[in-house]
Write a structure and sequence with these properties.
single chain, 376 residues, alpha/beta, TIM Barrel, Lyase, Ornithine Decarboxylase, Chain A, domain 1, 2 domains, ten-stranded mixed β-sheet, eight-stranded parallel β-sheet, binds pyridoxal-5'-phosphate
Length: 376
């Protein structure tokens, strides 16, 4: 038995039309480069399957995920587009990678051997993408070891090199010198591969920030994540995000109201004594749902009956309390917008991120599994 939306105190509205809008805007900007939509981490909290469908409908030609389970879930949902795994996976997963026709990233001869052997057993040819570490130092083959890896792959007839790629460490700061250094290294790598006759059909380097900021980083494919969701990769590229619209709103409903006397505190720690007698509204959403506990101590406000309201105290695991001051109209069932628009006001995940010292990515990824996603 499942409880539908009407039985929820808190939910997220995900507007797949806005995902399509954002993908379409960026597709026009980066053309003729292809877009592969990054839908890892449940599409940054938005829901991988609906987002994948929306992105593909808007012109994306492939998808990217972090782990095998994510790719398998997309395949089981009937998605047939290419799905790139963004790093090497545990050897035990090779049979699923090959069986579900996921595109592995290869960074080591060991990784190539594992996939190559399973592909041979299953009588398949597997297209792979080689990831090169040009300076981020997370995963990737070192440029000086690339020829050796490619030559090893030449001995694995069941593997074909479909792509070569890299990832930028500071793409969200376009003038940072590391971007030019990484790009120069990558260009050198591509040219060097060409001299040994390796010319993969897909060359890619750019995430959202690099795709928006640097035409030279687009090659013939970009891996589009955060901008597709309508959030900015970072303040350094905010002006390039004009026209993008956040696709997710986080909402709840008031479950209880009470008048609390001036001088009393609210919630764990009773940290903020009230300046005046106030109406306190309780909303059943908490840090287990992705509302950061520290948000209660910031100046972030949420929207209730079209009015910005402050947190009356600490965010608890399952509930928050809002200070509605003297507003006696607030009542059980009223809708609260935590992230999104209500009336003339808007609160964004990027504002939450700034308030708690993180990035919008972490805010939307953190919206928990028990928050019902309603798709529009
Ligand atoms: C390898 C790789 N490519 C692309 C992306 C997408 O980045 P963004 O969400 O900034 O567009 C990510 C996300 O973290 C990534 O890890």
């Amino acid at each position: 038995m499942s409880v539908d939306f009407s039985g929820r105190w808190a939910w997220a509205d995900v507007h797949t039309g806005l995902i399509q809008h954002n993908v379409a805007i960026i597709a026009e900007r980066v053309a003729p480069a292809q877009i592969w939509a990054v839908v890892k981490a449940n599409a940054y909290g938005h829901g991988a399957i609906p987002v994948a469908h929306a992105a593909l409908a808007a012109g994306a030609t492939g998808l990217c995920v972090a782990i095998v389970d994510e790719g398998v879930a997309l395949r089981r949902a009937g998605i047939t587009a290419p799905i790139l795994l963004l790093s090497e996976q545990p050897a035990e997963m090779a049979e699923f990678i090959v069986g579900y026709q996921l595109t592995p990233t290869i960074t080591t001869t060991r990784g190539a051997a594992v996939i190559g052997n399973v592909a041979a057993q299953q009588n398949r040819t597997v297209p792979v993408h080689i990831k090169v570490d040009t300076g981020m130092h997370r995963v990737g083959v070192a440029p000086e070891e690339l020829r050796q890896l490619v030559s090893y792959m030449g001995s694995q007839p069941s593997l074909t090199v479909e792509g070569v790629y890299t990832h930028f460490a500071v793409a969200d700061e376009p003038s940072h010198p590391a971007n030019a250094r990484q790009l120069a290294t990558f260009n050198h790598v591509i040219a060097d591969l060409a001299t040994i006759g390796v010319n993969p059909p897909l060359i890619h380097a750019a995430n959202s920030a690099a795709a928006l900021a640097n035409p030279d980083a687009r090659f013939n494919m970009v891996r589009l994540g955060i901008a597709m969701y309508g959030l900015q990769p970072g303040p350094g590229v905010a002006d390039l995000c004009a026209g993008l619209i956040p696709a997710m709103a986080l909402k709840g409903r008031v479950s209880a109201v009470r008048w609390v006397k001036a001088g009393e505190g609210v919630s764990y720690g009773l940290r903020k004594p009230l300046a005046a007698d106030s109406l306190i509204a309780t909303v059943p959403i908490g840090y287990a749902d992705g509302v950061p506990r520290v948000l209660g101590g910031t100046n972030i406000q949420v929207l209730l009956n079209g009015v910005p309201r402050s947190f009356a105290g600490t965010v608890t695991m399952d509930q928050v309390m809002l200070d509605c001051e003297q507003d006696s109209m607030v009542t059980v069932g009223d809708e609260v917008v935590f992230i999104g628009r209500q009336g003339e006001h808007m609160v964004t995940a990027d504002q939450w991120a700034e308030a708690v010292g993180t990035i919008g990515y972490e805010i939307t990824c953190g919206i928990g599994a028990r928050v019902f996603r309603r798709y529009q």
